[in-house]
Amino acid sequence: SRLALAAGPTLDHFGGMVAFTTDLEAEVAAQIAGERPLMQAWRAGKEVGLAYGEGDWPSAVKASLQAGDGAPFSEAYPEAWELLRMLPQSPPAPPVAAGFARVEGGVLEEASGRLKLNLSGVTQALGSLNVSQVAFVAYAEEDLSIKESIGPDFFREHGASVAVAMRSGYPGYLLGFFLDSFASQAGLEKGNTVAGVEVLTRDLGDAYLVAEPIGSVLFLSVAPDRARAEALMGAILGQQGK
After folding, report:
1. What domains does the chain contain, in order, with CATH numbers?
2. Structure pTM?
3. Which residues, 6 or more positions from 13, have their beta carbon under 8 angstroms from its beta carbon?
4. Which of 90, 109, 170, 216 is least buried, going by the fewest C-beta atoms within 10 A?
């Protein structure tokens, strides 16, 4: 099966297509999804289309998906495509999911809250870095089984880790300066090294975070434990020729 999602203006708006292995699976899934309030669901062969949320956005997404409108990702979202290309293609585990989000109106705080990650201080600091778009890739040794809610237990069960790239509107030297200034406020510790590069780290309790700016792009790796977070950051640094 395959899943492709499109994010809406808030985390409570989304659309996409889900591919199933049989027509029967798709038909049952469409019926179940269509019973949910605010959800528009339809079947097209072995695929199920979804559009969720309030207002006109879901209907517009449904019409676009049914009409097959669209453009290659690299043309429609060139900035996000460039950020995704900076993330490792051959890290310690295979990539299983990827995406991007525009950073607006506290979306980072809301997302970290829903993922139950203790990023207090970090999201506020990132909000000061003039970041407008974030790209991410998730890696795991097995396919992910999507649950109704996702938290630290989900990442531990699947051995999943996430690499994040976000481009700041500030040049590299200013980005580094701001990070140094905000490090203590965000609970980020200095002094640890990965592949000979000094990085910022934070033990989140249920997960481990490693951060490193390269030029005007800030890279993050988040994993269930320090070893996997550092291994993923090592792959990120290697991708950037560090």
Report:
1. 2-67 (no CATH), 74-239 (3.40.1000)
2. 0.76
3. 7, 52, 53, 54, 57, 58
4. 90
